[in-house]
Design brief:
- The protein is of the alpha+beta class and 242 residues long.
- It folds into two domains: 77 residues, Nucleic acid-binding proteins (OB fold (Dihydrolipoamide Acetyltransferase, E2P), Beta Barrel), CATH 2.40.50.140; 120 residues, no CATH class.
- It is 36% helix and 22% strand.
- It contains seven helices and eight strands, in the order E-E-E-E-E-H-H-H-H-E-E-H-E-H-H.
- The strands form two sheets. It has a five-stranded antiparallel beta sheet.
- The chain is elongated, with a radius of gyration of 19 Å.
- It starts with a strand and ends with a helix.
Length: 242
């Protein structure tokens, strides 16, 4: 068995004296583990850093074996965000989310969303890109939100809330009487007001919304906690907004 693909390095653990078992999210082959021989060497170690974009080749005698990876760096995300605590936490959080995916389960649209998000790391639009990645993540796992039309009226204007039960938007007028039981829908996630530079309050609302659905559906089912790096990312974002 042999295949080549684009990948995002998620994590690795030492194996033997010099090798690494790498966990890599690939576009066409999903999250796949493999042995990187010499992965702890000075030449290869900088390549195997969380968030880095890679060109990889995986090979094994049988499909169900661990397999061996060879990797070539295509995007040095890790070194780009090394001195930016906020972006570093975001990159780590993104990798943590991807690591709950079942192995060898392809999600090419999610891969593209992750790569777009990582390209924005270090830029002012990174938090908004991360929110959109989380929305795609929820959608790919079967918990997509409908943020374009009101659950009560079917209208697409003045959407202000999200129902925690249905995951569908609710207009300001229809939801006013129930606002204490609804989640806030920030304006930048509405199709009519999309922007990569939302205000701090809207970002906080957005992460509260995606965090609710991640916790209630995705992580409750897996029995795992939401990555601590996501909490750190939001904490640093809050501090930056003060």
């Amino acid at each position: 068995m042999r295949w080549a693909d684009d990948g995002i390095f998620l994590s690795g653990r030492p194996h033997g004296e010099s090798s690494v078992i790498a966990d890599i999210f690939t576009r066409e082959n999903g999250r796949t583990r493999g042995l990187v021989k010499g992965g702890r060497s000075r030449r290869i170690r900088p390549i195997l850093q969380t968030g880095n974009g890679l060109k990889v080749e995986w090979r094994a005698r049988l499909d169900d074996q661990l397999g061996v990876y060879t990797a070539e760096l295509t995007e040095a995300t890790a070194s780009r965000v090394l001195d930016d605590k906020l972006s570093l936490a975001g990159v780590t959080a993104l990798a943590g989310l991807l690591q709950i995916l079942p192995e060898r389960d392809p999600h090419p649209r999610l891969f593209d969303a992750a790569r777009d998000c990582l390209e924005a790391a270090g830029e002012t639009g990174f938090p908004a890109s991360f929110v959109r990645f989380e929305l795609r993540f929820l959608d790919e796992l079967g918990f997509g939100l409908n943020l374009t039309t009101c659950a009560a009226t079917g209208r697409s204007d003045d959407l202000a809330y999200v129902s925690p039960k249905s995951g569908q938007a609710v207009s300001r007028e229809a939801g006013e009487a129930y606002r204490d039981r609804l989640l806030a829908l920030p304006a930048f996630l509405s199709s009519a007001q999309g922007t990569d530079q939302p205000c701090h309050a809207d970002l906080q609302s957005a992460f509260a919304m995606t965090g609710y659905f991640l916790g209630a559906h995705v992580f409750t089912e897996t029995g795992k906690p939401i990555p601590r790096a996501r909490e750190e990312f939001i904490r640093l974002l809050h501090r930056r907004g003060d």
